[in-house]
Amino acid sequence: MATTEERPIGFGRMKRKEDARFIRGQGNYVDDVQLPGMLHGAILRSPVAHARIVSIDTSAALQHPKVHAVITGKDLEGLNLAWMPTLSYDTQAVLATDKVRFQGQEVAFVIADDRYSARDALELIDVEYDTLPAVVNARKALDADAPVIRDDKENQTDNHIFDWESGDRAATDEVFARADVVVEQDMLYPRSHPAPMETCGAVADMDKVSGKLTLWCTTQAPHAHRTVYALVAGLPEHKIRVISPDIGGGFGNKVPVYPGYVCAVVGSIVTGKPVKWMEDRSENLMSTGFARDYVMKGGIAATREGKITGIRVDVIADHGAFNATAQPTKYPAGFFHVFTGSYDIEAAHCKVTGVYTNKAPGGVAYACSFRVTEAVYLVERMVDCLADELGIDPAELRLRNLLRPDQFPYECKTGWVYDSGDYERTLRKAMEIIGYEQLRREQAELRGRGALMGIGVGFFTEAVGAGPRKHMDILGLGMNDGAELRIHPTGKAQLSLSVQTQGQGHETTFAQIVAEELGIPPEDIDVVHGDTDTTPYGLGTYGSRSTPVSGAATALAARKARDKARIVASAMLEVAPDDLEWEKGRWFVKGDPEKGATIQEIAMAAHGVIELPAGVEGGLDAETVYDPPNLTFPFGAYICVVDVDPDTAKVKVRRFVAVDDCGTRINPMIIEGQVHGGLTDGVGMALMELIAFDEDGNCLGGSLMDYLIPTALECPDWETDHTVTPSPHHPIGAKGIGESATVGSPPTIVNAIVDALKPYGVRHIDMPCTPSRVWDAMQGKAAPPQ
Amino acid sequence: MQVTVSINDQEYTRDVEPRMLLVHFLRDELGLTGTHWGCDTSNCGTCVVLMDGEPVKSCTLLAATAAGHEIKTVEGLEVDGVLDPVQQGFTEMHGLQCGFCTPGMMLTARALLDRNPNPTEEEIREAISGQICRCTGYATIVRSVRWAAEHPAAPAPSSEEVTA
Amino acid sequence: MSARARALTLGFERKDPVQVPAPFEYARATSVDNALELLQQLGPEARLLAGGYSLLPMMKLRLAAPEYLIDIDGLASELGYIRESDGEVRIGAMTRHRELLESELLATRLPIFTDAERVIADPVVRNRGTIGGALCQADPAEDLSAVCAAVGAQMVIRGRNVERTVGMREFQRGPYETAVGEAEMLVEIRVALDPNLGSAYEKVERRVGDWAVTAAGAAVTLSGGIVTRAGIALAAVGAEVTSVEAENALVGKAPTDELLAEAARFAAAACSPASDQRGSAEYKRHVAGVLTHRALRRAVARALGREA
Questions:
Q1: pLDDT per residue over C208-249, tens digit each?
Q2: Residues 6+ apart with CB under 8 A from C20
Q3: What is the four-CA torsion angle of A7, A8, A9, A11, rounded to 10 degrees?
Q4: How many domains does chain C have?
Q5: Within a 10 A sphere around the Cβ of C105, how many other Cβ atoms?
Q6: Rounded to whole angstroms, how far apart are CA atoms A249 and A505?
Q7: pLDDT class for C13, splitting at 50, 70, 90?
């Protein structure tokens, strides 16, 4: 079958297969699930950040005619479920027992006939609190007089969680000591929130007769969740089925197991009916996994000519009231140690101290690639601070320091082995597309007239695709993912995956991977995902890992099928397997191309009666579990133009050019979409997104009126392009793209804003750069938002 | 109380509390789950439906108020198996990823094109500025609407043109 | 109007996470008279439901919980109009934001309305939200209150057997408080037309659709090159209904740019902004001055017929 430009068989731009249901409003999201007799749950949450629970009176709520049950922490204690393990080997309260430790913490669970009555019943629960002083500032969490938040933990006498270091401190100190220039800068990556348009929720249906629990859930990792429920709830794992139906955006928000899910499960067991729990937006913003909140002290050392020699950083990581971040066990600060960036440096060191505060738990979310957002922000801002100090153009400074292609695979000073890269080419391409020289000339002219125009450059290298099982596990589950390919007798196929799309287009791109390997058209390949009963085990989708891990598994499974097809074809054509050659879609006899068999014909024969060699089984199915040998390292060069109103300090993003390199490109249309989404995240974080708190720990970012997300009017028409530097260790050379733009755009925009404010001598301004905060910087009073 | 609402040219009567919001009426009472909800403060716009041809946020409208008006939801865009050009446009130009904001975006696009068949990029961005998308970055949504503007459905034949 | 919504503080102080209003009884008004009758019958626990964008969000957050809602959606034709009559523009209280935005009459004679509507909420909200609903909610950051104050609008309030007209100073009692009493409703807004009147509105917001960080409306009437009347009103910065000192600085003088700047300084000095997530008090005061100056400049230019 011929491949065409509109309908590629394999890689190329093709429209998405999943669109058909979404454009008709026939997506099946968790809140769309309706089961007979289904009840609705709602959570009563703490109004205060830190308090002892004196009493909980649920009697009035139980009197409500539509209420079926009210569950409290005390009830869960009886089931040993009041606390659950987190993905970081800490514990988290499902429903509070002794204390509440953040505003919005779960205190009671009401189950009622419908969502309206469930919420009415919340007002009938009377809780008496004894307020305690709250720890809100992470910098003060380790003060001697700071109240101890986790007094539930044995041997916990302060708010310290962990210390973690990477790199060589002695070597780094030495480099800094002899450097011509050292620039130091405090910077904050403020607390933000992934805020997908669909909030989190679950429908739990415990079948008392079969003993099987079916859980529809907004989860990016259904299999991992299943295992967690087996461990936590003591339910046998084969009696748990987790279904991620369509998910309305994940962005890392839907990786953790939330108390609401556990309550829904308990609720179904207790009432004998299906129980739906869907959080509303304030709950999502106030209690589910936030992102970032890294207080950083960075330093960069260089020669006078602008050769960067060392980078160092100390971080206070605010993890909230429970350490519930998701990242591989050995890396409590995720992959932050990729802060070494895209540069050839002599030494680097980082120390990260994790602390508890009276705020919602989390930290790893919002497309951070396990803290790569924080790392890239740090290094790209430091490079610009250095450029400012030395008076060197920031693009020029980067060109003097970027790693060269012949240096790859490159082992950076904190141990990462970057797989491949041709950085200069990508940066120059971005500069050419945006017309960098021309922009600098325009800027000079505008500055002369008092206008504030800024040009920001950012270059990033990510570390994604976790990961090798030797190094990377979450809760002891190795981060390997599988793929199962079945090719039916009529030559159509089904691919079952362990990863979980939330909009990334897996139903299309993974079919394209199989199509590329086997020549079966993508429309003949059904991609199945999200149901733990029918898909292979894996750790799910986040950290841009689907293409690097499951994409590899898929390609390898397809190749196994192709190898099997060769044997079947050799039986069909009565030649030796070595006499066969492959062209996409068929094996044919070398030197006699007319004589061949299409993959469809081979499929039928494989299931048929043809005699196969000894040891060769029938059918054309194949499966793989992929253990990546390394992470992959997508990279990119971003350049942004902003204009700042000198009187109101309002920032407008005028242009944004993004040149991404994600290795082999499966579907350019989908890649572009992923990049556009991430660039918008950058506008959000750089200009307006902030989960703020007052000094009592009241959350000030608990609605979309306060937590501002960009609209179409804040975003320019994105300009994107690409380079291709395949990953040498990946079966199809692909690196992943999902989080690149979220990683690379915030520092690029901040760099542009600081550049615009050069006439005011501004060295740094923390995000979000709201008009008021930019104005403060112009007055010489820049300060972190919290 | 009894509430009768006309949705996609069909009347539905249900007995509901006065406080029932139109979005829940559509989703929970009628099973029309194409209309979504995503916030508590009328900001996100995933609940947008058309009322008398104009976009409204169904989370901020009582079902009772909707009585007496003509409501169109995403389920009403496709007619007799023929997709609306906006639906086609969103598929052609990758105007959706997770699909959650999409019904509202398409309906607003439909209303815009009905008033202004050839909108500029700026006018499209303005029209969707009350609705948030976390996935697409909006540029492909703008392209999708432009595609629909450039590929309007063939006008329905007049009664004289239809042959017996 | 009796049941008052408590201030929606930025501290988002809510007891319980909810998404739906508390229960209430519902009635549909068939006319203004019928609405007033119902208000009287049902008493202080009844609220009028117009566009719904001020009241329903409050009710969903359980910050307001009236026992009765009187739906006046059906009054949209009776009370939805913008017309010129007797040297005035008369706007029905149920006129939608979108109608105000698209009004040719307002764009040419009172463009302060058009300027403001461009930056009020978002296009979807503007399809339903009404001027009456906005004015009666009287949120201190609400733009149309400042617009009406700047142009010296008269509010027509009708009761069962009586109709009275008040100016903005009397109408705006304080945050979330207006002069509309029990068993009364706002029915019309009237603004005197003057060919020598120019008006404009300026606003800074963190993002489209957000409440103002600061906003300023100005209306200037000139005669023989001299200011005969000036209306200056700020939103979101704790200002008085209008900035009287600033207005007085202009009346009787030629509107030079220095004079406008001076008036802007008076306006900025007289307001009482609060620091919050939208901005520091200092920033808001600074921008109050900037925007007042900009609004005055454009109002004067329009009065002189020099700007669309």
A1: 999 999 999 999 999 999 999 999 999 999 999 999 999 999
A2: A115, A116, A119, B19, B21, B24, C60
A3: -140
A4: 3
A5: 14
A6: 12
A7: very low
One-letter identity of residue A198: E
Compute the Cα dihedral for A580, A583, A587, A589 and give only its sign: negative
Q: Do residue C107 and residue C50 come from a single domain?
A: no
Strand order in the sheet with C82-85: C82-85, C88-92, C184-192, C154-159, C163-167
Range of the domain at C95: 82-192
A32–B contact, CB cutoff 8 A:
yes
Domain boundary among C140, C165, C192: C192
Nearest in space to C111 (alpha carbons), one of C193, C205, C35: C193
**Span A60-101, pLDDT tens digits:** 999 999 999 999 999 999 999 999 999 999 999 999 999 999
> How far is residue A327's CA from residue A279's CA, in Å, rounded to a whole number?
24
Taking contacts as CB-CB distances below 8 angstroms, the residues of chain A near C278 are 770, 772
Nearest to A622 by CA among A577, A563, A667, A574: A563
10 Å Cβ neighbour count for C98?
18
- Residue in chain B nearest C25 by alpha carbon: B18
Specify the residue for token string 């004289």. B160
| Cα three-residue angle B92-B95-B99, rounded to 5 degrees | 120
Give the ipTM: 0.97
C94/C174 same-domain check: yes
Q: Write down the CATH number for the domain with range B2-76.
A: 3.10.20.30
CATH superfamily of B85-152: [2Fe-2S]-binding domain (1.10.150.120)
Sign of the CA dihedral running B107, B113, B119, B123 = negative
Token pair in block for residue A309: 């020699």
Rounded mean pLDDT, B74-101: 97
Residue B22 contacts residue B62 (beta carbons within 8 Å): yes
Q: How many CA atoms lie within 13 A of C293 on its CB side?
A: 18
Residues with Cβ within 8 Å of A429's Cβ and at least 6 positions away in sequence, in order, are: A637, A659, A721, A723
H or E element in which residue A741 lies: helix A740-756
Average pLDDT of chain B is 94
* pTM, full prediction: 0.97
Domain assignment of residue C77, yes or no: no
How far apart CA A492 and CA A710 sit, in angstroms, is 42
What are the boundaries of each domain within chain B?
2-76, 85-152
Q: Reduce the DSSP state of residue C284 to 3 states and report it.
A: helix
Residue of C14, C122, C277 with shortest CB distance to A700: C277
In this predicted structure, what is the pLDDT of residue A386? 98
Q: Which of A335, A323, A331 is nearest to A463 (CA)?
A: A335
Instruction: Region of A181 please: left (phi>0), alpha (psi -120 to 50) or beta.
Output: beta
Instruction: Scan for tokens 């009275």, then name that residue.
Output: C164
Whole-angstrom distance, CA of residue A705 vs CA of residue A56: 31
Query: How far apart are the CA of B51 and the nearest CA of chain C, in angstroms?
Result: 10
Q: Which of B55, B59, B65 sits opposite C71 (nearest CB)?
A: B65
The answer to whether the CB atoms of C123 and B40 lie below 8 A apart is: no
Shortest Cα–Cα distance, A250 to chain C (Å)? 22
Residues (pLDDT < 70) of chain A are 1-2
CB proximity list for A238: less than 8 A, separation 6 or greater: none
Q: Would you call the peptide bond into A409 cis, given omega within 30 degrees of 0 as the criterion?
A: yes
Q: Taking CB atoms and an 8 Å cutoff, what residues of chain C touch B19?
A: 20-24, 26
Q: Residue A193 has which token pair?
A: 């929130």
Q: Do B94 and A15 touch (CB under 8 A)?
A: yes
How many Cβ atoms are within 10 Å of C169's Cβ, its own excluded? 14
Q: Do C23 and B42 touch (CB under 8 A)?
A: no
